[in-house]
Fold L-lactate dehydrogenase complex protein LldF.
Amino acid sequence: MSGTGNIVTPLPFPTLARRELGDQQLRHNLRKATHTIRDKRLRVVGEVPDWEQLRMAGAAIKDDVLARLPSLLEQFEAAATAAGATVHWARDAAEACAVVADLVLATGTAEVVKVKSMATQEIGLNEALEAVGIHAVETDLAELIVQLADDTPSHILVPAIHYNRTQIRDIFLERMPGVDASSLTDDPPALAEAARRHLRARFLSTKVGISGANFAIADTGTLTVVESEGNGRMCLTLPETLISVVGIEKLLPTFADLEVFLQLLPRSSTGERMNPYTSLWTGVTPGDGPQTVHIVLVDNGRTDTLADPVGRQALRCIRCSACLNVCPVYERVGGHAYGSVYPGPIGAILSPQMSGEGANRTLPYASTLCGACFDACPVRIDIPQVLVHLRQSGVDASRGRPSAERTAMRTMSYVMRDRRRYAAALRAARRGAAPLRLVAGRRGALRRLPWPLSAWTSVRDAPLPPKQTFREWWTREHSS
């Protein structure tokens, strides 16, 4: 894990995608799940006559936050502190993990319960706590499945989307302590009941809860978590100590701004009109809920992203995952192909900006630029625009360096500037392709070419040149 946590892919996207494409069960699971969520979203969004106005309002509010972020953060810290919370600041993943680990160790407990949180996944908190002897129990059903399987999440909203219910039953039978193997079926209510029984004792006995936050309200110091199962409510109210890890971009200026986002988020994420559980808390309330509340505000590359006038719109993201569910690339390769904790279209623009390390440079190319993600985004992040911008930035950064691709393009430019050179090149290509037609057979294309053309055929077939050009055909047909 790098200093920025789990947002740097270990291998280039093409390498990981090629591996995932070989899993037919994965593609079946993804197609079924994403289409189900996509269809639900379309139905409930269609009920809202002012949906586009809501999208524009959401984008405007988030842009206002980004324009005033330093002052709003100070306002939030003052309000939360006045309400009895303790606010901590963390520059990166390592610092955030150290703060949380110290806070948990100070309580003397060896186990914590967790609400589903992308921020804690981003910083690698579970691994950091394990390193100091603290076991973090994921209480969201999908997160629990992934944890029991020793796997990593593959979707922002549904981390276990790559499993079907039969696979989940097998995971429970093999990994869940105390499960009744004789009666457990792959029926969803039976699986949910098994998870409920497994978690109940931990809810009632664990002294420390850890959460993220969907929104942080600057003028009141309030944090908000929306969820569908009720496990979050248990983690937020039963423990004696609550530690919330919050990205600095999660702010909203006023409590009234929640009205917009509590319409946008559930419809875009789960296809629901409202979340079954919406929890809000402000500091400490004597005799009610956790009596010690800590808030860890995490940067971890967000201010670097904020500095880019085009790319900063990625910080509007409210983690709804709508872009994943409509993306043709994600549907075929799944979340693990992106390598980062943030998969799909939003991950392709967020991860490289938060950390431009290593193979993250390949993520902006993990897209067809079809634009479906922008149409689905509830806060109007123009993901295709940012993808092109990041690709251009990568090209600009390598200008002046030797490049086989640049040499090839210059050669093509020289050939195509002159009609006679171009015609001669076509004739030469056809003559060179003649023996290859025997290899290609009826396919009319080659699966593999030698270097440097192998970069093309590693991911697609190379079509052979036609036996005659259009101009040759036209000349022959009209020569009389």
Q: What stands out?
A: Residues 404-478 form one domain. The longest strand covers residues 241-247.
